[in-house]
Amino acid sequence: PLHDSELAIGLWIEALEEGISKIKDHEDMPIFLGATGGLREAMNKGKVTKSDIAGFVSKLHHKFGERATFHILSGEEEAYAELVATRFAAAKKYGFKEPVNFISCGGMTS
Asked: pTM here?
């Protein structure tokens, strides 16, 4: 089980709240948290349990209500989310008109 899971959960919720507070008109904004390969690996090794996840989700809903959702992404969902985010950033920040493709080589899913 996650060592000091209550502390870890509290720090995650606090960091999320701080980040969201910097977004204009954030009060009604939906919140989607997608966990990736690192969490899948920690669960497979028994370092994080379903009980740890349930505790996190409970505190997430307590703080943000039902506008907050949490999902452990599959490898395929994670790859798709990275591709969509890369294409969005390329278009918005750099003005790319054509779709951008990429290779992800980081984290637990490499």
From this structure: 0.75
